[in-house]
């Protein structure tokens, strides 16, 4: 693995950082999350039109840029630095790869060019608080079912001319505003139960998409309630959905890890800057040895997490899986950086309105959605066969 960035990769980072620096300050972030969409549509248009961000990792044949997971991770690292609210994660990281992997050629040709140019946003809807399970991040998803019992979860049944969906999915990222829902639903009855993915347009879903109050407002989410809604099957009935979900989950974890690294790096920069300005006992608090040690520990954690995230993104492009472990490392680094940032900002840092809390909420919110950290590590150890090796030794 060559850790040096190519000229193209460096150009993506610089262009994105320049645009977000101008358009996505703390005030703009707070204003965007209070809007009906939960993000700034004009900023999303700029990201799509000027930089091609939604289609960065999509093939050129479908209007994308043709880059790999590595470039998408580098871009999301910059997005994470500014906590820029956008449908990028839900659309390009979670949903588009599944359409690319499982969709028919007609479905890919219809949907992916619109995703690549930013005109269509999408969301992945799974039943219950089970996103990490469906993606295979906290345990194997071989036994995952989109149904939650006879009357629970999301169910699909055949109907004249297609399929109909009914049920409920919570914590759907950008589910209230997405133009397309990719819904995991239970089908086949008890004897032949299985999970398939279905396409539902925003118009078909109707008004039963309710935005929820979230700890991290920069990650808007919704409760999606479907009542006899028409849907199209993604791919065919022979499509094996669960391995594709696990593969998409590992790549998404690598991208999320890079995003968390960007956020941790930014909160560390702001804390170091403040420690050099705040004077206590006649000298900047950053000159005290204890403060230096604490900031040095945060720095080491951020750099280690960056190395893990970069490796996971590189490995995902080669079909290898290291995303879950990298995500655990990055979330831990972000949580530590945000906590130290709050404390070292002194009294002002403990006020709820301070920007440091945005980063702390991002760390806590991502752990609730994709973790927690110890389960991510348990799953990585299980996948690597460490538990089996330990049992053999005993």
UniProtKB/TrEMBL annotation:
Query: Cross-referenced Pfam families, in alphabetical order?
Result: Acyl-CoA_dh_1, Acyl-CoA_dh_N
Say yes or no: keyword Transferase present: no
Domain Acyl-CoA dehydrogenase/oxidase N-terminal: start-end pairs: 6-118
Q: Which domain of life is it from?
A: Bacteria
- Please report the stretch or stretches of sequence annotated as the Acyl-CoA dehydrogenase/oxidase C-terminal domain: 254-383
Question: Which co-factors does it depend on?
Answer: FAD
Keywords (A to Z) from UniProt: FAD, Flavoprotein, Oxidoreductase
Tagged with keyword Flavoprotein: yes
**What is stated as this protein's family in its record?**
Belongs to the acyl-CoA dehydrogenase family.
Protein name per the record: Acyl-CoA/acyl-ACP dehydrogenase
